[in-house]
Amino acid sequence: MNVAGAGFAPSPRGRGAKGDARTPRRGRTRVAYLIFALDILLVFLPVASFLLLDTYERGLLDSLEQSLAQQARLCAAWLGGSPLDAASARDMIDAIGDRRTARYRVVDPEGRLLADSSGPPEEAADTPGAKPGSLSSTYVVSRSLEVSVDGGASPVEAAGATDGSPGVDPAANETFLYQLLSTPARLWRRYFAPPRPAFGSADFYSGKTVLDGVEIRAALEGRYGSATRVSSGGQVSVTLYSAVPVLREGRPAGVVLVSQSTWRILSELYALRLDAGRVFLWSLVAAGLISLLLAFVLIAPVERLRRAAVTALDARADPASAFPDFRRRDEFGDLARAFRALLERLEDRMRRTEAFAADVSHEFRNPLAAIRSSAELAESASSAADRSRFHASIVAETERLSSLALGLRRISAAEAPGGERERLELGAACRAVCARNPALALSGEGDGEDAACRPAGRSAIPCRIEGPAGLAVAMEASRLGSMLGNLVDNAASFARSEVVVSFGSRDGAPAARFVEIRVEDDGPGIAAGNLERVFERFFSWRPDGGGEPGRAGGSAERHAGLGLSLAKALAEAEGGTLRAENRDEGGARFVLLLPAA
Fold this sequence. Notes:
Oligomer: single chain
Distance between the termini: 41 Å
């Protein structure tokens, strides 16, 4: 069978036209590109982590400033209880001892330095070659931690100066990896971020004995003062200054200045950023490998399926064979098997359509030939009786054609989706169908669902209905009536003495419940070789002793071989089945299985 010529032909606008599945369109977004695009999103992770750590840094700096202010207030409260002079300021600093991470300075109301935790001013003045107010070198070495937190040198540098080690590891922010990963953030701050205020140098108080910074002046006016200055020593850090007035009798008697470098905080943040960068790089490598694996695992089977689909479009014998027999147990294997089953079903449907077209052509040819012959004979007939006979033949054949056309239309409608569904009780439906057939007379009793007896004509066949009350199906009423009507009409045309319609519940698949309807007659039954053929279109078989051929309902397609075919098509369209079998005691039985409501 030529599949391409049966509805799968290329677009008439040409092979390059839109909708041609044989040639994949270029320039479109492919799944592989989308998979690798996920890796690009990982580039934003270090930037996001740097921004998050910036927020964390600001919180730490605020906490540091509050801590410095609190320490300055405690020292000011200590000094406010006695006259402020160099001795009391030194006693306060010595009482704190070396258990400190900040630098303490005490100044008098004129801004003169009274005491400094990094060394007393008088000791610095007595040192040969030292400038007034400078610090003693020996005192600086013993206070290396204080120099690191205020003077700008890193703790590593201070430690190296103390123990004389030949070399130390560079700071985290000086490594190549940190510089590489922080490039986007530095470029953003340089070209796009708003300008930051310029800070003064941390060397502002270096070598001075009179401190006149803005925070000192604010404290001498009775207010809290603070300042931020860039640390020296080549490190990217700042020094925070907090000044609190020493109050005596409500008036400023001096100032306590507490300062500390942020290098210790920043060095920890740099190390944290560097660790995050290493994790990011390893994650990027892992994501790239996973994306590459996904590209092969996902894209290769999809491309294989596409090539199989293109081959199936061009196949001339068996399109389903173009799809490979996937042995995979994943979704791609299921998809390939579903495509293969779909093609097999489409191919079977097309074969049946071709056979149906051939049968229709054959069935229509005989009535048309008879009509033509009768018309020609009627034209040449010499007597009125002959012309009347030929005209009657033409009318009969025309009615046969009309019956065939109506049956074909009903079969086509049966293969289409049904209309509005409603709940239909089987007892009432079976009773209405049997009552419409003039060849049947309702009789018998049974469980509240048997129909009441009605008088039967001389040739009427008793019809007995059996089944429990309340059993129902959900479908369009006309479809159920058509199915039952064709089965009952067929049974009535073959029955000798009785037609029995029974129904009951029957469990089907675990997730569904079915009802079973049986239509039985006591006629000659069906030959074993015709149990399946009776459902074929245009197949009609009436054995000798098969009841009265003229006894049937008002079905337009009776004796045309379309009634049972229509019933089976409707049953399958509703998700049910219809089969034929012979009764042990003689006669035929048709079993209709439908989903219960």
